[in-house]
Backbone:
């Protein structure tokens, strides 16, 4: 019971924070953060799709060695998503913490980010040999397929969070 009360106190403190009050009270607060979040999502998912689809055999004119140059955009977009997502989250932390769709989205985004980090490492280690061998390794293709599926699920659960409101956990 103590932990639950402490957790609730932290959520209440966050909701009363300057950022939260500004986000809810400033006419441009929420729209700016939401626009940044959508832009980050579009860039991250768009570039992830290009990377993954190339590893799965599409976009053959794009050399494997060139894929690593896309990652700075992916990292910047993910950073934008995290910062803007936190700004949006503090406006209703208790509601989001109790929302099953949001929590699933958060877990999927973490898993998707882990898949991209793993894919980055695989690309860094193996891309040179793929050009010689004529295609990405089985490991890279599996990671790419998993990343595509996970990020599609992030998009769906993100929309469910926005359109359905709080879906209680349990």
Residues:
């Amino acid at each position: 019971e103590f932990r639950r009360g402490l957790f609730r106190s932290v959520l209440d403190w966050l909701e009363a924070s300057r950022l939260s009050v500004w986000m809810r009270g400033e006419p441009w607060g929420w729209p700016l953060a939401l626009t940044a979040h959508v832009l980050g999502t579009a860039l991250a998912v768009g570039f992830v799709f290009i990377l993954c689809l190339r590893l799965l055999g599409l976009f053959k004119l794009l050399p494997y060695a060139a894929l690593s140059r896309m990652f700075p955009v992916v990292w910047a977009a993910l950073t934008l998503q995290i910062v803007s997502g936190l700004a949006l989250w503090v406006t209703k932390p208790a509601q989001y913490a109790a929302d099953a769709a949001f929590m699933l989205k958060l877990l999927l985004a973490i898993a998707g980010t882990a898949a991209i980090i793993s894919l980055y490492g695989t690309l860094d280690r193996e891309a040179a040999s793929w050009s010689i061998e004529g295609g990405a390794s089985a490991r890279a293709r599996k990671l790419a397929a998993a990343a595509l599926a996970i990020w599609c699920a992030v998009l769906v659960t993100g929309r469910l969070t926005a359109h359905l409101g709080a879906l209680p956990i349990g």
Summary: The chain has seven helices and no strands. Residues 100-133 form the longest helix (34 residues). The helical segments are 2-15, 18-25, 29-55, 71-89, 93-97, 100-133, 138-164.
